[in-house]
Design brief:
- Chain B: It comes from Palleronia marisminoris.
- Chain B: It holds the Pfam family Response_reg.
- Chain B: Keywords: Phosphoprotein.
- Chain B: InterPro entries: Bact_response_regulator (IPR050595), CheY-like_superfamily (IPR011006), Sig_transdc_resp-reg_receiver (IPR001789).
- The complex is a heterotrimer.
- By secondary structure, chain A is an alpha+beta fold.
- Chain A folds into five domains: 127 residues, Four Helix Bundle (Hemerythrin (Met), subunit A) (Up-down Bundle); 87 residues, Alpha-Beta Plaits (2-Layer Sandwich); 54 residues; 179 residues, Histidine kinase-like ATPase, C-terminal domain (Heat Shock Protein 90); 138 residues, OB fold (Dihydrolipoamide Acetyltransferase, E2P) (Beta Barrel).
- In chain A, 45% of the residues lie in helices and 22% in strands.
- In chain A, helix 1 packs antiparallel against helix 2 and helix 1 packs antiparallel against helix 4.
- The longest helix of chain A has 28 residues.
- Chain B has one domain: 3-Layer(aba) Sandwich (Rossmann fold).
- In chain B, strand 1, helix 1 and strand 2 form a beta-alpha-beta unit.
- Chain B starts with a strand and ends with a helix.
- The relative contact order of chain B is 0.19.
- In chain C, a hairpin with a 2-residue loop joins strand 1 and strand 2.
- Chain C contains three helices and eleven strands.
- In chain C, strands 3-7-8-6-5-4 form a six-stranded mixed sheet, with no helix packed on it. Chain C has a five-stranded mixed sheet with strand order 9-1-2-11-10.
- By secondary structure, chain C is mainly beta.
- The chains are: A alpha+beta, B alpha/beta, C mainly beta.
Chain lengths: 648, 124, 152
């Protein structure tokens, strides 16, 4: 090795040694910008000189490592435990590369260990972006900007700037059209719009200013909404000194941050799942305690049991609230979807959202994106007319798709409304008959008719489009919502528009159910699907086969025995009741041997031995220790209706 | 269809550098040696972005920006000026005249790519 | 190939008059029979679920898979709770045994050593045989014997 290369190796070893210390310090205080900078600088030096001294392989590898830290510096990623782990592994790898000496023939070589680390670093880039960045160190900015009138002519693209801002974090974009002149005065090349963006980001003010670097002549206003981002607000000297004096290193940084930032704690979601699990067990144990207390009839015990019940309820509510996230997280993704779709389909559509602050369980949120994409695609593709058709119908050229969320009781209602042409009841009926979903002479309500669009294989689009064709989509919506123990409803007025409403439980971990007995075994029906319980008419009780219909007030409701559906032998019971369920707007009666009452229950997933059985959603342990099966009302009702159809 | 970048520069090495950097990123790159050639190239091709030097013979960058912005058929085509720290005033004048952005020389390939992406949102 | 014999600890239990064994590593606990909740529309091999100390375990019917007639719960009947990996998931599985004999160290010989056994039991469910006090002990292939119907 030549002397220059030797000195490079020596210097690099020193850098790597320092690097290890810095990375470990960073682990204790992941948001320290100074240490992030220090890592970045160390890597930058290695990369820069590596190439000059014949260590091209090392330089190439360092480049990837450096890029990961560049993203963190830019606020696009956060320091995570995985990153620390990977950084240490990469550092060790660099040391091995130094040991191996300069590249043989002066060209970069690749070996599996390097490739593996690079793949991991790159995977990190993709996975850690917005959410972790947001959680690491969040600041809220309100950004308003109005491009110069000539901006569009000069080739400025406000939408690209907005997209850049959206990459920095969670952005809520609204546009102001107040300055748009009347059509006859409108110069399409002049920008009359201004935008307001609420940005929640881990990036700092500089990153936002960078976005507007070439737009310095515009009217731009950037305001930080909440005080407390840490880095630009130094902690009071006294508090820092105190904490250094009396606690360990990681404590000081936490304390210092705690003092200057909002009081939030970042917790891995599996810990919440564990907490939820424990709470589930507690709810079960508490049910058992109630039962024992009732049996014993001891006044002291029963008042203690009641006290514990009250505390458990409070604990449950508090725990559930931790898992709640604002639905805006989902809504936010749709601005782009709507924009792209309307461009693709040549339609002018704006998205409005309302109730984004409504909170839903994290697991529910995670599953919502896909069904909402299907619904919105369907709205824009099939519901919204072309601008010409809209004009002819006396509507504004620009169509509106509105997403609204609100909480009602134990449910969250999410609706997607469009002001398009509405569903064509006759076309749906014809299609339903063609597909064998309804009988040609069947008398069904409009709501039920609209419900058909969620049936597998149903599609009324005349031509298949790349957007929502192929007749998949809406049945996928129902499948996901069923899995979430929710329901889908459609309302539509011809010529006026369509509203699809998803009714979802607030949480998936605990459901309110109706405990019933069928053939001696306990079963739980989700209360969200239960409308009422009625007596089983005596004469109907006698009927063993054929189609059974019950008149409830003015409506005829078909019903069926669950024991028949389950293939269980019927047992004698004087307590037989009909549970009237409502699934997708259709009412079906399910006969049970006994209704025990309402029961709040923790859903335990089924093992692989039983997971595939249609109609079972999970299991739970009752107060007396028995295992009860939780029924999937939608699947049960589908099954029941198939059975009723074949019996008819 | 890939986007077309017009590099207007009297230095062949700068034009080549822009070509060698942007072509692998999926852009088509065409070149012009001064402002007059640049405007001719704009008329003859569907150009998505112009990267233009300030100092050039025949028609300099500032004049070219003014000419381009006078012609409404070139509306919406952004012009990025190549400048040095010392030319700040000229650069501001170009901005005033309708340039969309700038790149300070010396610049590296990454900086060029990032400014082009920022201006027109990627090659596709 | 008797020379491939290996020694291991197994739990022996009775089913329909025969002695079966499974490696003790798979046995979590042995408990008294508990009520079983029938799962509607389940296959005959996994007819229900039981509560094992607060955890819900699928209840499997090994007799059915071995082609034996169904048994009543007797005085000596015990529920074996097994720790298995089913379809990649760690799962507790419960089964009923007519009687639990004991835990013993045994040398497992290849099934070919006793060819006539293969006629009586589905051979793919069995890992081998061992001799204990002069009687034959059938050592189960745990993965195959307890695989869910749909994953078999």
């Amino acid at each position: 090795m030549n002397p220059a290369a030797e000195s490079f190796v020596q210097e690099s070893r020193d850098i790597l040694e320092d690097l290890e210390g810095i990375v470990l310090e960073l682990e204790a205080d992941p948001s320290d910008p100074k240490r992030i900078d220090a890592v970045f600088r160390a890597l930058h030096t290695l990369k820069g000189s590596g190439g000059m001294f014949g260590f091209a392989t090392l330089a190439a590898f360092t480049h990837h490592f450096e890029s990961a830290y560049e993203r963190i510096r830019e606020g696009k990623a956060a320091v995570t435990p995985e990153l620390i782990q990977l950084s240490l592994a990469s550092r060790d790898h660099l040391e091995r590369m130094l040991d191996a000496g300069p590249d043989e023939d002066g060209t970069p070589a690749t070996d599996p260990a390097t490739a593996e680390l690079v793949a991991k670093i790159e995977a990190m880039d993709n996975s850690s972006a917005p959410v972790s960045a947001k959680a690491a160190n969040c600041a809220c900015f309100t950004i308003t900007f109005k491009p110069e009138p000539t901006a569009l002519r000069n080739g400025m693209r406000p939408e690209l700037l907005i997209a850049e801002l959206q990459e920095l974090g969670d952005a809520t974009v609204s546009v102001s059209t107040v300055d748009v002149p009347l059509l006859r005065d409108l110069d399409p090349a002049v920008c009359h719009l201004s935008w307001m963006i609420e940005l929640e980001t881990a990036a700092d003010r500089d990153a936002i200013d960078d976005v507007f670097i070439f737009a310095s002549d515009w009217q731009i206003d950037v305001q930080q909404v909440e005080a407390g981002t840490g880095s630009d607000l130094p902690a009071p000297a006294s508090s820092r000194a105190e904490s250094v004096a009396d606690s360990s290193k990681s404590d000081t940084s936490d304390a210092a941050r705690g003092a200057q930032k909002t009081d939030s704690v970042r917790v891995p979601s599996h810990r919440l799942d564990e907490l939820m699990d424990q709470l589930g067990e507690l709810v079960i144990a508490q049910a058992r305690l109630n039962r024992i207390s009732t049996d014993l009839g001891d006044a002291g015990l029963s008042s203690t049991a009641e006290e514990i019940e009250r505390l458990v309820t409070g604990l449950r509510d508090a725990t559930l609230s931790i898992r709640m996230l604002p639905i805006e997280l989902v809504f936010g993704k749709f601005r782009r979807v709507v924009r792209d779709l309307s461009t693709e389909l040549g339609k002018d559509v704006q998205l409005s959202t309302l109730g984004g602050e409504t909170e839903v369980d994290k697991n529910v949120i995670d599953s919502l994106t896909e069904p909402l994409v299907h619904i919105i695609r369907n709205s824009i593709d099939h519901g919204i007319e072309s601008p010409e058709e809209r004009r002819a119908a006396g509507k504004a050229d620009r169509a509106t798709v509105a997403m609204r969320a609100r909480q009602a009781g134990g449910e969250v209602l999410i609706s997607v409304t469009d002001d398009g042409k509405g569903l064509d009841a006759e076309a749906i009926r014809a299609r339903g008959i063609e597909r064998g979903l309804i009988a040609a002479d069947q008398d069904i309500s409009e709501d039920q008719l609209f419900g058909l669009i969620f049936e597998p294989g149903f599609s009324t689009a005349k031509a298949l489009s790349s957007v929502s064709g192929r007749g998949v989509g809406m049945d996928a919506v129902r499948r996901v919502i069923d899995d979430l123990h929710g329901a889908v409803e459609v309302k539509s007025v011809k010529g006026r528009g369509t509203e699809v409403t998803l009714r979802l439980p607030l949480t998936l971990a605990i459901i309110d159910g109706l405990l019933v007995k069928v053939a001696g075994g306990p079963f739980v029906l989700p209360l969200s699907n239960v409308e009422e319980c009625v007596e089983l008419p005596c004469d109907e009780n006698e009927r063993q086969s054929g189609r059974s219909i019950l008149r409830i007030r003015d409506q005829l409701v078909p019903f069926l025995s669950l024991d028949t559906l389950f293939g269980f032998d019927r047992i004698e019971s004087s307590e037989r009741r009909v549970v009237i369920t409502s699934v997708e707007g259709r009412r079906t009666g399910l006969v049970v041997d006994e209704v025990i009452g309402q029961y709040q229950t923790v859903i335990k997933p089924l093992s692989l031995y039983h997971r595939g059985i249609e109609g079972l959603a999970g299991s739970t342990i009752l107060g007396d220790g028995a295992v009860a099966l939780i029924l999937d009302a939608a699947a049960i009702v589908r099954r029941a209706q198939n059975a009723l159809k074949s019996a008819a | 269809m890939s986007k077309t970048i017009l590099s207007v520069d009297d230095s062949k090495s700068i034009r080549d550098m822009i070509g060698f950097t942007l072509q692998p990123k999926g852009y088509d790159v065409i070149g012009a040696g001064d402002g007059l050639e640049g405007i001719a190239a704009l008329k003859a091709n569907k150009v998505n972005l112009v990267v233009c030097d300030l100092n050039m013979p025949n028609m300099n960058g500032l004049e070219m920006v003014r000419k381009v912005r006078e012609d409404r058929s070139f509306d919406g085509i952004p012009i990025v000026m190549l400048t040095t720290e010392a030319q700040k005033e000229k650069m501001l004048a170009a901005k005033e005249a309708g340039a969309a952005g700038w790149l300070v020389k010396p610049f590296d390939e990454a900086k060029l790519v990032s400014v082009v992406n920022k201006m027109i949102g990627g090659a596709q | 190939m008797t020379d491939s014999a290996e020694t291991q600890m197994v739990l022996t239990f009775a089913l329909d008059g025969e002695t079966f064994a499974i490696p003790v590593g798979h046995v979590d606990e042995i408990i008294d029979p508990l009520p079983i909740t029938r799962a509607p529309n389940a296959d005959a091999f996994a007819p229900g679920l039981i509560n094992v100390r607060g955890a819900i375990a699928p209840f499997v019917d090994l007799r059915h898979r071995l082609g034996m007639r169904p048994a009543e719960v007797q005085e000596a009947s015990r529920v074996l709770v097994l720790d298995l990996v089913v379809g990649g998931e760690a799962t507790k599985v419960a089964m009923l045994a007519d009687d639990v004999a004991d835990i013993t160290e045994t040398a497992v010989a290849d099934l070919e050593a006793v060819p006539e056994l293969g006629v009586r039991w589905p051979i793919d469910l069995i890992r081998g045989v061992a001799k204990k006090d002069g009687a034959l002990v059938i050592v189960l292939d745990v993965d195959a014997a307890f695989a869910p119907q749909n994953l078999q």
